[in-house]
Design goal:
13% of the residues lie in helices and 33% in strands. It has 212 residues and is an alpha/beta fold. Bound molecules: coenzyme A. The site of coenzyme A has 16 residues, from strand 23 and strand 24. The site of coenzyme A (COA) has 16 residues, from strand 23 and strand 24.
């Protein structure tokens, strides 16, 4: 079993524990806030230190970032970079029930959660969350630091820029391009490519809040 350190001890961490154990990792512990050290996130899974302890585990385990994000990936990116700067290895974790085509690629620090499907020719970047029941269709391209949340359909040939959040059960029509730093609300249907930074929602998805 491969040893793994999780960074971030909230709700998303619980889901990643489920994924990582199914994928054959042995979880050494969780890093979070100093005041939470000693607390259990799930039975048998304790917070054993803070992110300042990353260097102590570089030769003992791989790492994965287990803080989720909806609107702002800044903390996830900061922690990802902190692991890299310490010389740590980010794990690519694929749930036992997920299906990833042998013709797809998945980056470091990325987690593919239970019952997700990644089809042939898809490319997924680093530190991405492919959440439970997501479908990534053929030749779709998901850039670094994205979160494709539960039950979303990313259809064939879509291209998603860095730091994008796609809310639960959204649908992206074929060949849609989504620019960087965009948030798509849950249940949206994105039928045309979008590039202006901001929050989009609805069917068809339109911009609701423009980035400042
Ligand atoms: C998109 C989202 C982040 C926006 O949250 P917010 O910043 O608090 O924004 P607000 O709720 O103030 O919404 C702004 C506008 O967008 C609309 N809107 C927001 N989300 C919407 C949605 N999913 N569908 C339709 N309209 C939506 C609001 O009605 C509001 O419109 P108005 O200004 O005309 O009244 C949030 O609504 C959302 O969808 N979160 C994702 C939840 C999710 O998928 N979680 C899964 C985690 S795994």
């Amino acid at each position: 079993m491969r040893p793994l350190i999780l960074i971030g001890g909230g709700g998303h961490c619980k889901s990643v524990i489920e994924v990582a154990e199914s994928a054959g990792y042995s979880i050494l512990g969780i890093l979070d806030m100093l005041e939470d050290v000693g607390n259990e996130v799930l039975p048998g899974h304790k917070i054993i230190g803070t992110d300042d302890d990353i260097p102590a585990y570089v030769y003992k385990a791989e790492f994965v970032i287990t803080i989720g994000f909806i609107k702002n990936p800044t903390i996830r990116i900061k922690l990802f970079n902190k692991v890299k700067e310490a010389g740590g290895k980010l794990a690519t974790v694929v749930a036992s029930t997920a299906y990833v085509s042998k013709y797809a690629t998945i980056g470091e620090g990325t987690v593919v959660m239970h019952n997700a499907f990644v089809n042939a020719g898809a490319q997924i970047g680093n530190n991405v969350i492919i959440n439970t029941f997501v479908n990534i269709e053929h030749d779709a391209y998901i850039s670094d630091q994205c979160h494709i949340s539960t039950g979303t359909m990313v259809n064939g040939d879509c291209k998603i820029g860095e730091r994008v959040f796609i809310g639960s059960q959204s649908v992206l029509a074929n060949c849609i391009s989504i620019g960087e730093d965009i948030v798509v609300g849950s249940g949206s249907v994105v039928r045309k490519s979008i590039s202006e930074k901001g929050i989009y929602a609805g069917n068809p998805a339109i911009i609701k809040v423009r980035a400042k």
